[in-house]
User: What shape does this take?
Amino acid sequence: MSEKDVQDVDLLVIGGGKAGKSLAMDRAKAGWKVAMVERDKIGGTCINVACIPTKALVGSARTLLTARHAARMGIEIGSEPAVDLEALRAHKEDVVGGMVEAHKKLFADSGMDFVLGTARFTGERTVEITAADGATRAVRGRDVVINTGTTPALPDLPGIADAQVWDSETILRLERLPETLLVLGGGYVGAEFASMFAVFGTRVTLLQGRDQLLPREDRDVADEVARVLTGQGVDVRLGARASAVRREEGHGDVVVTLDDDSEVRGQELLVATGRTPVTAGLGLEAAGVRLTDRGFVAVDGHLRTTADHVWAAGDVAGSPQFTHASWHDFRVLRDNLTGGDTVTSGRIVPYTVFTTPELARIGLTETEARAQGHDVKVARLRVAAIPRAKTLHEGTGIWKAVVDAGTDQILGVALLGHHAGEVLSAVQMAMLGRLPYQQVRDAVFTHPTMGEGLNLLFDTLDDDKARG
Assistant: This one.
């Protein structure tokens, strides 16, 4: 291909996830010549097969729970509430479809050149784009951003490739609500789907190879989440390591063989054992872009790759696998592409696990704080003690805060309870402002709200038992 056949643009974005699409629209509106290539998910993974559809379904599950428990609030509904699978699927698809259509308009209005297709590097900052209709062209970017995300990973287990299992994306097709569901993996995704399907009425068995659910959390918090799931009917099996998977003939049950040679069976199996970066077929070697040992695009604190003027953002760059982290990557890239000097280090990234009730987390766990040498004080509060929780009959859960004993700075918080993700934002603002915990303890929060529970939580630090 001759030089004259190559189209030059100011910014070429490969992959339209949160960081990539935000940057492409922003720079196009600023007058840059921008081209963005997205393989198949307009708007990115979050909108199509992750955050948005799953949280839409979580909302449905919580509505079902509310209906079931209406009598305790003095409301008579009548017959037993039930799931209408067709309506449930329509609700999810309506939410997703509306956001996809909105993104098509946003892309067009920004002035960018949006291509639904694939891109493969053929040289420095140069790619061959193959559109969905088969048309090809060469594009070179003054700057290039890789934002191709991750995809569900299958563990290396005998038989699993042929067992027609579900992953966190295919399960969202909602082809049916199985009577029994096995969930392989006790991380955040596994816990969310186990909670959701249990509420929908499926008998769920969660198989976790480790001896703790949610391994990144403190054990006391993880154990409380396990108790919540068990209370919803989930059979939580810790230390249950899978050694093989098979599907019985005629699309029969899925059978998981464990290390002790025992077997567990269910109509379907959800594999929730992590995600792998999408880099295959990109031709990164031709661009001079290296990968880490774990297969992510190697970047520095500025999100620069090993190739000049080639950047990477979001999941594929090893950033925390949350849409809000990718959104911050966009801000870092925008600043650095326009003469700034912004890095990702030092940012505080919160997250919420949307079980029912939800687990909201930010900062260090108690285990991490002690490992880093902090002398800590630990605040603990049962959600049932919060007045607002009493009025809603939503007293399930615990709150926990870790504070540096010398500086009184809040190091981290885990909130398991009703609307915990919303309350977490108040703690995050206090941490960003480096407020001592006493200012949160003594703040005047609206009564009765869940946020008011922060007064009660940090009040427990006046007890000598909080130390040590």
